[in-house]
Design brief:
This protein is an alpha+beta fold. Helices cover about 35% and strands about 15% of the residues. It is globular, with a radius of gyration of 18 Å. It comes from Aeribacillus pallidus.
């Protein structure tokens, strides 16, 4: 039985892609072909959004120069394992439109990230989203206008061996379980258990 099957069991029938997707930290330096990489953003493009505004934008880094620029705002802990990541994608979202403030911009960007992550899994890639970054430094370094919110940084690539990580991270390099579904759903009112 694989690590994923041991750690992840669905309570109700779903496609296995949801169980296979997790966030490893061990990356190979292997380059991601452009057509494969762009297919992830193609999947993200089809995520739902309020008024079809599609507030998400991605700033990617795949050259040595661009990855070095991104490393300048990645937090100390994440820098430990990010050195081999071949592609970074910073997901940002536009906070306003001609209609005014977009209250769902981050929610919609999260949907785009979800679509991207599932397509990556389908293509044999791994992704690891992180918020352990200096948001203001990222804004300055990448010239991001104030009308865009910075949501998260995503590492994209091929999975490496866990032994390539520092020993302190090797034990964490495994799929994680989820709490039972009934603990995430209330029925009718907050705090009211789901009745079956």
């Amino acid at each position: 039985m694989t690590q994923t099957k041991l750690a992840r069991q669905a309570e109700y029938e779903i496609d296995s892609i949801y169980l296979k997707r997790w966030s490893p930290r061990s990356f190979l330096t292997k380059e991601v072909p452009e057509d494969v990489l762009l297919s992830l953003f193609e999947a993200a493009r089809w995520a739902p959004s309020a008024f079809n505004f599609q507030p998400w934008r991605f700033i990617i880094a795949r050259t040595e120069e661009d990855r070095k620029r991104f490393m300048s705002f990645i937090g100390e802990f994440n820098q430990i394992w990010c050195k081999n990541v071949p592609v970074f994608a910073l997901i940002i979202s536009k906070k306003t439109s001609e209609r005014g403030e977009i209250g769902s911009h981050a929610f919609d960007a999260g949907a785009a990230w979800g679509y991207l992550s599932l397509e990556a899994t389908r293509k044999g890639l791994i992704t690891h989203p992180m918020t352990g970054i200096d948001f203001e430094k990222a804004r300055q370094v990448l010239n991001i206008p104030e009308e865009y919110a910075i949501n998260a940084l995503i590492a994209i690539g091929y999975q490496g061996e866990k032994e390539a990580l520092p020993e302190s991270l090797q034990e964490r390099e495994a799929p994680t379980p989820r709490r039972p579904i009934k603990e995430s759903i209330f029925e009718g009112l907050f705090g009211e258990s789901l009745n079956e």
